[in-house]
Amino acid sequence: MSSTKIKQAVRSLCDTLITPVPPEIKEEFSHIRLRHTVRGLIIFSMVEAAYAAANVLILQRFPVRFTHIHSDFYVSLFSYLAVMTLLVFLVAGFFKKKKDRMLWGLCYLFAFLINSFALLNMISTESERLFLFIFTSTLFIITFVFNFKPRLFIPSAVLFYAFTVAMLINNHYSFKEMRNLHLFLLYIFLSMMIVKTLYYNSQVKLFTEKARIHEMNNMLDALSKTDELTKLNNRRFLLRYMDFLWKQCGRLRLPVSALMIDVDYFKKYNDTLGHVEGDQALIAIAQCLKNQIKRETDCVARFGGEEFVCLLPYMEKEAALNFAKDLVQTVEKMKIPHPMSTCSPYVTISTGVASIIPAENSPHTRLLDEADKALYRAKASGRNQVVAA
């Protein structure tokens, strides 16, 4: 079999075993894996530092018994910890700046150093139990501390296993039942491969499900506060937002203004041109109103039928009146033909303006009532105009 076919077979096997991350959430999932890796590295280094400190205390308590036995091991351990601690500070510093590429590079370097130190320690040890402990713990750390993809983890683990076996074969120390040791290491290695793949796949599925639920919740939230036809805020959102503004402006003694807007002779427009054209006219007017809103705190919503409301917090009555006049002129300038209007050949709006500094214990519906009364006077006065309460 050619090398190309072997690569294709391996890739096909990987695609079958490893669950792919959806492209639309790939970057976010990678960032979460990186965050888990950094957190794992910090915890791992803290554990290692605590372990080293405990050994220092033991050496101080029993210097004669332990120093001559473990001196080389502790020298390698402390040099290892110095490098690891430095890297953790680098990792934590880059993570705050969200430089993901640089941070992943540091994590790869961290993993390489852990493998290297493990191999050096295995070369220097004569104890079979210590050899197995170093091999198993290193493979465990690489599997769970570093949240690498299986496609990256598996080749690095294979190399680590290959170096370990090569070292065993060429090691001049006498291990008991060398063949059984090889088999035991193989079982550990294969177990970690399976665990890593299953762990990664469960992460992908869990994150994908959470992302899907989050997206659905956002859609439901948007639907709950958006008018289906005009895509403006709906009446429910308007009343909730108004309640919040009413309390805030009352507490700060600031004015809040409201514009009650009605499309002139809209029933005649529907009766003459049809409801489809009526819907298109409402959509165009809604977009026009939305485009006129400049401040983030301002809100325009469809109140019902052909009525709209603009909330203008922290705006005095005179400024709100000027804003309403601009709205009336802008809508007429769109020049949407209205054959049945008696005030203009085009679709127009009438607007009532009210501005109040909320009083304590007064209902927020008072503002809309005042704006609605002003709107009624604007319609009674000939429409296509603004009247202030």
Descriptive keywords:
389 residues, alpha+beta, 5-stranded mixed β-sheet, 8% strand, elongated
Task: Explain what you see.
- The structure is a single chain.
- With 389 residues, this protein is an alpha+beta fold.
- It has two domains: 3-219, no CATH class; 235-388, Alpha-Beta Plaits (2-Layer Sandwich), CATH 3.30.70.270.
- The protein has helices at 3-17, 26-61, 63-96, 100-124, 128-144, 150-170, 178-225, 235-252, 266-273, 275-292, 317-333, 365-380, and strands spanning 256-263, 299-304, 307-313, 349-356, 386-388.
- A five-stranded mixed β-sheet has the order 2-3-1-4-5, sandwiched between helices.
- Helix 2 runs parallel beside helix 4 (100-124), helix 4 runs antiparallel to helix 5 (128-144) and helix 6 packs antiparallel against helix 7 (178-225).
Poorly predicted parts? none
Report the strand count. 5
Q: Which secondary-structure class do the elements indicate?
A: alpha+beta
Describe the largest sheet.
5 strands, mixed
What spatial order of strands do you see in the largest sheet? 2-3-1-4-5
Distance between the termini: 88 Å
Mean pLDDT: 81
Topology as a string of helices (H) and strands (E): HHHHHHHHEHHEEHEHE
Short recap of the structure:
The protein is built from twelve helices and five strands.
What topology does this entry show?
Layout: H1 3-17, H2 26-61, H3 63-96, H4 100-124, H5 128-144, H6 150-170, H7 178-225, H8 235-252, E1 256-263, H9 266-273, H10 275-292, E2 299-304, E3 307-313, H11 317-333, E4 349-356, H12 365-380, E5 386-388
Parallel strand pairs: 4-5
Antiparallel strand pairs: 1-3, 1-4, 2-3
Helix pairs in contact: 2-3, 2-4, 3-4, 4-5, 4-6, 5-7, 6-7, 9-10
